[in-house]
Amino acid sequence: MKRQDTMFSIRVGNIGLLLHATSQLTEIADEVTVKLTPELFSMIASHRSSRFDVVLKLPRNFFTAYSVLLTHTSRISIHAFHTALLDASTSPSMTIHIHDSINRFILRFENSSHQQEKRHELIFSLLPDQDQDEDHFGKLDYGRFFGIHYQDFTQIIARFSIHDDETLLVTSTDSEVTFSTPARLLTLHKEGGKCTILGRGEDEMTQFLITIQPMMFFLGVAGQSQKVWFFKTVDSRGAMRVPFDTYVYVIYFNLI
């Protein structure tokens, strides 16, 4: 059955919030995968070095109206999307329409009476629906995971990035978390309130690798979140989850 525009009805009531949520993706990629399901609007970007992938998850409550009856997966230019939002950032709302027949996203920016003021068309490349779903990156292992405050995360970046150390070994036990390279080490203790360690992992120790480069990207992603959470995936990769009030970033590190 051919998909029709009527299968998708999406309205954004806070364009500034969407602009902020997507702005970090423009720093690491030229294109993103857009995946729409009945419950979630996702944008997936791969860093140009292929060292990590970023998934921006926008749930239904992020939108003023969200009705998606069919799964849609495609590739668009994140810079074109971001430019469109910048061009109409003062508009009270926008709607997103999908025309599969001409491979276009139609962004309609409205005034307070929901009348169209501006319109942008973005070309997309249709992808198979199963492309880059959650299983593609590896599910998060909740056996043991931990969270640290944003201030401590910035301390980690300051400690290691000045030496251009791109890969950090993360070691988590029941009582402490350590970030290290062959030359340097930084430990955060649970007892001192520097980290929150959760889960009931059978292993005494959990280890995985992450990167903190590019530094400005990681500072920007975590900048307005109170806590940054770290996981190991079921396929032994490191992952970082940064939650906000109405959306979340999940970063999967391709370092094993």
Describe this structure in words.
This protein is an alpha+beta fold. The protein folds into two domains: 8-135, Roll (DNA Polymerase III, Chain A, domain 2), CATH 3.10.150.10; 138-253, DNA Polymerase III, subunit A, domain 2 (DNA Polymerase III, Chain A, domain 2, Roll), CATH 3.10.150.10. It contains five helices and 19 strands. It has helices spanning 15-23, 78-87, 134-137, 150-161, 215-222; strands at residues 8-12, 31-36, 40-46, 52-59, 65-68, 72-77, 93-99, 104-110, 116-123, 125-126, 140-149, 167-172, 176-180, 185-189, 195-198, 206-211, 227-233, 238-243, 248-253. Helix 1 (15-23) runs antiparallel to helix 2. InterPro entries: DNA_clamp_sf.
